[in-house]
Amino acid sequence: EAIKLGAAVLTGPNWQNFRDSYSELLKAGGGQEVSDAASLAEAALALLDDEAARVAMTGRASSVIAAMSGALPRTLAELERFLPPRTTLQHAS
Question: How much is the pTM?
Fold first, then answer.
């Protein structure tokens, strides 16, 4: 959600529930992992002070999310191959 709203992402080390997303995000430089309150404050202040770095980070994050989006439509399209043809419902009068 933060990325979709254009916010920079700072995360702690416990992102295992979102391993795929965060791995790609951090690898691309679209987010930054911090280890404690002091490193969080330092990273946040650095981003607030450096608009170019903040814009670059959020741009990379948006690119990662865009590349990872669309899984549901692709999955449904693949599953449709195994379903019977669609029919039109007719209402009784």
Answer: 0.71
